[in-house]
Write a sequence for this structure.
């Protein structure tokens, strides 16, 4: 009786631990992802219609589909086209402008309206008469440093847009990898929850048999039943999370949301060797598209400042035309005009304003590039630390998992022998649940840390497939 009372007192404690476990697990699953990332990276333009069969999906397939159909990738391509169009506009200001036209004019002129009193033998109203003119005209900016620097600035902006598109591809690869790994981890959690449910069902059946044989008290059967229902709730929760994770993955890589698929790659269990930090940083500064984008914007800002100060400098333009003019095409003669213009600015109030503005933008771009360089080093160092920590956690979690399996076997033997109550079984089951979750979380953390290091080094698209199972 005294033992049973102790078990009843322990039951609320077990339930409290269970609630805490669920709360912390749900909170970890609901942490916001990519708070600094644009939402377009998590959308796509889906392709095809759902089929009645499950499609095998490797991490390589997921990355390839994301690069084709992810909304962020599509938008970045169009933004690059817009930057290319802006450069063409700036280039057009430096190229010759050639136009042509044909005019036929019929006029009748009142000379008195222009102050002429008339000429001897000539009427005051002249005409009607016609004038035919077919002419080609050309204008060309010969020397205009402002237009030249504007073109160079837009060229650097186009380069920056190209680097930005490459950076979006790197982010798309990282996001597709993260969502794929999350779905794989979710599948492992469902498998673990199902195995724990089977164990809880076996323990409940064992407790019922022992109760019928008079070996254990009714509270032990009740405790086993509570644990069984808790495991059922865990399985329902894990299965629901997995279904949403699979939808997130399909949404990001352009799969129809109704299409079933099978994940063919598993989480890597062996950490990759860590590269030298200094070498990785130097390689990242040469390869990271976002850093190259930032440097291109610095050069664009420098050219924009030169364009602003060039407003003070003279410019030279050339224009000319050639054509036939006469009463009609049959009675016409060729004429031409050549003109060179030297423009010297004397006062323009916009020059100082544009110079101040361009100075401000240039300083801002330089600060952003310097900050990004430090952030790249920070990301490389933190990813390396995460890989080391995750590898150590994985070793500990694997050992704890083995010990928890031994604990449940011994607890069931002691319970069957009547030397322990079901409290030890509940504790052993909770230990297995915790060990499984720690193992899966450590495995996921190791894989995503390795993917993050590839992204930090600017080689996500080139290397992630290889070390995470893709071909």
């Amino acid at each position: 009786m005294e033992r049973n009372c102790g078990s009843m007192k322990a039951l609320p404690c077990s339930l409290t631990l269970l609630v805490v476990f669920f709360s912390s697990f749900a909170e970890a699953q609901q942490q916001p992802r990519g708070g600094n990332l644009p939402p377009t990276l998590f959308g796509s333009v889906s392709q095809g219609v759902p089929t009645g069969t499950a499609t095998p999906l490797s991490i390589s397939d997921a990355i390839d589909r994301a690069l084709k159909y992810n909304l962020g990738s599509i938008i970045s391509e169009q933004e690059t086209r817009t930057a290319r169009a802006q450069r063409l506009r700036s280039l057009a200001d430096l190229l010759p402008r050639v136009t042509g036209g044909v005019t036929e004019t019929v006029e009748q002129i009142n000379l008195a309206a222009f102050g002429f009193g008339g000429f001897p033998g000539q009427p005051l109203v002249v005409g009607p008469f016609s004038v035919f003119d077919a002419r080609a005209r050309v204008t060309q900016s010969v020397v205009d440093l402002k237009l030249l620097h504007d073109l160079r600035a837009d060229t650097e902006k186009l380069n920056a847009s190209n680097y930005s598109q490459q950076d979006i591809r790197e982010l798309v690869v990282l996001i597709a990898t993260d969502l794929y790994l999350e779905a794989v981890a979710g599948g492992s959690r469902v498998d673990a929850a199902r195995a724990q449910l089977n164990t809880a069902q076996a323990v409940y059946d064992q407790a019922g048999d022992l109760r019928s044989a008079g070996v254990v008290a009714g509270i032990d059967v009740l405790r086993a039943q509570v644990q069984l229902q808790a495991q059922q709730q865990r399985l329902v929760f894990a299965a629901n999370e997995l279904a949403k994770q699979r939808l997130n993955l399909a949404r990001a890589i352009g799969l129809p949301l109704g299409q079933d698929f099978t994940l063919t790659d598993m989480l890597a269990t062996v950490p990759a060797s860590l590269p030298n930090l200094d070498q990785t940083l130097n390689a990242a500064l040469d390869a990271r598209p976002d850093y190259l984008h930032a440097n291109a914007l610095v050069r664009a800002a420098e050219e924009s400042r030169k364009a602003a100060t060039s407003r003070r400098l003279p410019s030279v333009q050339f224009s000319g035309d050639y054509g036939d003019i006469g009463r009609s095409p049959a009675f016409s003669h060729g004429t031409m005009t050549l003109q060179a213009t030297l423009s010297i600015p004397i006062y323009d109030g916009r020059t100082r304003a544009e110079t101040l503005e361009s100075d401000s933008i240039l300083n801002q771009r330089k600060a952003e590039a310097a900050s990004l360089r430090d952030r790249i080093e920070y990301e490389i160092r933190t990813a390396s630390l995460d890989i080391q920590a995750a590898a150590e956690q994985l070793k500990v979690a694997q050992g704890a998992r083995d010990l928890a399996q031994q604990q449940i076997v011994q607890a069931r033997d002691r319970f069957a022998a009547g030397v322990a109550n079901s409290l030890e079984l509940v504790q052993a089951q909770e230990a297995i649940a915790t060990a499984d979750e720690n193992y899966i979380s450590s495995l996921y953390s190791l894989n995503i840390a390795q993917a993050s290091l590839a992204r930090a080094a600017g080689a996500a698209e080139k290397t992630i497939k290889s070390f995470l199972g893709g071909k």
Q: What stands out?
A: The CA atoms of residues 92 and 151 lie 9 Å apart.
